Amino acid sequence: MRVFFLLCCLLLTLCATEAHARFSRRAKDVRILISGFGEASLPTTAADTVSGAAYTTKYSPFFPVGGGIGVLIHDNWYLGARFEYWLARRAFDPGTGLQSDTLRYLSVGGEIGIAQISNRLQLYILGGIAYPIGLQIESTAGTFTTTNKPLTFHARIVGAISFSRYHAFFLEAGYRFARLGAFASGPTPYLSGGAELDLSGPFAGLGLQFQF
Predict the structure, then answer these.
(1) Is the peptide bond before 61 cis (omega within 30 degrees of 0)?
(2) What does the pLDDT read at residue 96?
(3) pTM attached to this predicted model
């Protein structure tokens, strides 16, 4: 993964050198930013551990996708909304046969932060909160849900390079606090002892941003 991101950074630098000669950024009090992204999230590998089980796959890593819309004020402040969709899977044998689980999570939330903008380079430091509007685990052992809707939190650093006045390519890295609660199917807990499923951990991603 490190090699992949190094190659992306090199490509962005080469492309941005060409883009810099083609345009200069016009001054605007407010800009509207629309983005789409894909991420790799790396929660602790112990987040869903079942003692004594033999794993085929775990929830780590999983790959969220999503988008956002926001406003950039005077090239210094960012305020926006963000949605994410997670589809994470695990497969393991607890000693009684193969069990396959699929976590589906859909959230919407907000972000706020600061920005530093030049003609083609952009840096954002952002913090956000998300509310799950869809959260359940579909398993060969049943359908597991939570009685509450826990909030998740994240902080991220975003570096973007503009290729024109209207769009930019960006890389991001951050940390997500995601304690998703204690899942159960009727009286049957998802994790032993009714423990919470914790998918907190670092993440990295890339995406495309449109600016108006």
Answers:
(1) yes
(2) 82
(3) 0.84
